[in-house]
Amino acid sequence: MYTGLLLILGALFAGYCIRIHSRSLQLVLRRFSSAMLYLILFLMGFGLALVEDLGSNLLAMLQQTLFLVGALLIANLGCLYLIGRYLAMPSPHSETAGQSKGASLAEPLRLIATVGVGLLLGLLHGQALPAQSAIAEWALVALVFAIGIDLRAAGISLRQLLLNRRGLLIALTVVVSSMPVGLAAAWYFELPWAAGLAMTSGYGWYSLSGALIGDGLNPVLGSTAFMVDMGRELLTLLLIPVLMGRSPAAIIGYAGATAMDFSLPMLQRAGGNQIVPVAIASGFILSLLCPVLVLFWLGLV
């Protein structure tokens, strides 16, 4: 287990050491990352079909997903609202009308469909593919390596991000407030305590958390983590216009790792340019912590 964890973490930091300036190369890299993500999710769905007592496991997955999504929503937003009162956040100024949510939902729906196709083909095939686990593992290593390069390509130094006081406090509040939820879920669903903590350490980064947990534990928990973090991202879309005027810190933090990429344009539209540095800092810190913490907890299962 620890050899695999070191391999994945090593791939992440090796990728971060590579600086790419060419926009065309960055585009190729993102397309490669997307291809690896779809491959991993397909194999996750395929592996899910081979789990014994699939019907009862799917029910358990649904129950765990609803529990975690609801509990994280309450815990994260409650603590973020409190901490936001003392951060003197900039007053939000909406710059444009909201964008179509249909376009934003298209990518998550395609990813869900990929898992579904893998599940259906797995049920029809009835047995594992040749070298299925090895392919999934190396696709994950390649994805994490590409993610490391992409993070470095953001062009913002670690010093600028990690020394942003507001962003750092918001990110740490998300981390701390998520941990009791993970422990509660582990106790309630009779899972290893470290597995519960791993499942609440994705911070909305469903493309990575589900793959790491599916590879480190099993396809059922990996699929649950995937759905929990995807649910977080979809709820963020709905909550940005509602919460930005009440507590910018709360919605920036709840956006999790996506505050630096997927959710950033919507946060900027709803809150103005003055909240962008805080959102990028919080999202970047959570993006760095996600693989580190998930892999750390998986190593203790």
Secondary structure layout plus pairing:
Blueprint: H1 2-16, H2 23-49, H3 54-84, H4 101-125, H5 132-152, H6 158-162, H7 165-188, H8 193-199, H9 206-216, H10 219-243, H11 248-254, H12 264-271, H13 276-298
TL;DR of this structure?
The protein is built from 13 helices and no strands. It has helices at residues 2-16, 23-49, 54-84, 101-125, 132-152, 158-162, 165-188, 193-199, 206-216, 219-243, 248-254, 264-271, 276-298. The chain is globular, with a radius of gyration of 19 Å.
Strand content: under 5%
Rg, rounded, reads 19 Å
Order of helices and strands: HHHHHHHHHHHHH
Largest sheet entry: none
Task: Estimate the mean pLDDT confidence.
Answer: 82
Given helix and strand content, the structural type is mainly alpha
Total of DSSP H or I helical runs spanning 4+ residues: 13
Helix content: over 70%
User: What gap, in angstroms, lies between the N and C termini?
Assistant: 10 Å
Number of strands: 0
Mass-distribution shape: globular
Q: Which runs of at least 5 residues are low in confidence (pLDDT < 50)?
A: none
Structural account:
α9 packs antiparallel against α10 (219-243). The protein has helices at residues 2-16, 23-49, 54-84, 101-125, 132-152, 158-162, 165-188, 193-199, 206-216, 219-243, 248-254, 264-271, 276-298. The protein has 301 residues and is mainly α. The radius of gyration is 19 Å and the shape is globular. The model has no long low-confidence stretch (mean pLDDT 82). Helices cover 76% and strands 0% of the residues.
